[in-house]
Amino acid sequence: MSEALLYSFRRCPYAMRARLALRYSGVPVRIIEVSLKAKPAEMLALSPKGTVPVLSVAGEVIEESLAIMQWALAQHDPQDWLLQGDPAVLALVAENDQGFKYHLDRYKYAERYPELPMEHYRAEGEVFLRKLEALLAGRAYLLADHPSLADMALAPFVRQFAHVDRDWFASAPYPRLQHWLERFLQSPLFVAVMAKV
Ligand SMILES: N[C@@H](CCC(=O)N[C@@H](CS)C(=O)NCC(=O)O)C(=O)O
C-alpha cells in the first residue's frame, strides 16, 4: 500500500478527530498541514469541496472526518472504539455534527449573529452539554467505561465550546464533563495529535 496522506489543519476539530483515530489505529500516515486560505492544488484535485480533513490512501479519497475515523478503525481498533457497532455511537456523533456544532458556531462567533446575545447561543449549546453530563453519570466515558469513537469525535468540539470562555466553563455545573474534557486534553493521544508538525 502506498503511503497514506492526510491533509489536515491543526486547529480544525474535524481534522483533530481524524488524526486521533488514525494515530490510535496505528496506520502510518503523512500529515500535510494546509493553510485554509491557500489550499494545496494537490488536495483540491483529490477533493474539490475544499474542506479538511482529506485522507488519500491506496487510490481511495475519503473526505469526511467521520468516514476517515471509520476507515481507521476498520484497519485496527484495539480498544473497541466502535463498541461492537452499537448504534448509539453514530447517533451521538450525528447530534454533535448536526445540532451542537450549529450552536457552537453561533456562540463562538456571536458578533456575527448580533440578532441575539451570546448568552442565548451558549444556552442553546448547553442543552447538549447537559446530555453529555448525564451520559457521564456512573462511567468515565460517554458510552462505556472506556473511550469510544463518540468521545473522540465529540471532544474537539466540546473543547472549542469550553475555550470560548474558559472561566464560564470552569464554573458551569458540569463537573463530570469538565473532568472528561480535562482527561482528554491531557491524554497522550491528544497531546500527540496536537504536536506541531
Ligand atoms: N463535514 C466535514 C467538515 C469539515 C470542515 O468543515 N472543515 C473546515 C475546517 S474546521 C474546513 O475545511 N473549512 C473550509 C475552509 O475553511 O475553507 C468533515 O466532517 O470532514
From TrEMBL:
What are the alphabetically sorted keywords of the record?
A: Transferase
| InterPro entries per the UniProt record, alphabetical | Glutathione-S-Trfase_C-like, Glutathione-S-Trfase_C_sf, Glutathione_S-Trfase, Glutathione_S-Trfase_N, GST_Omega/HSP26, Thioredoxin-like_sf
Ranges where the GST C-terminal domain occurs: 61-197
Keyword match Disulfide bond? no
Domain GST N-terminal, residue spans: 2-80
Top-level taxonomic group: Bacteria
Gene Ontology molecular function? transferase activity
Q: Can you name a GO cellular component term?
A: cytoplasm
- For whether the record's keyword set contains Signal, the answer is no
Sorted alphabetically, which PANTHER family does this protein's record hold? GLUTATHIONE S-TRANSFERASE OMEGA, PTHR43968
- Protein's UniProt name: Glutathione S-transferase
Q: What organism is the protein native to?
A: Pseudomonas simiae
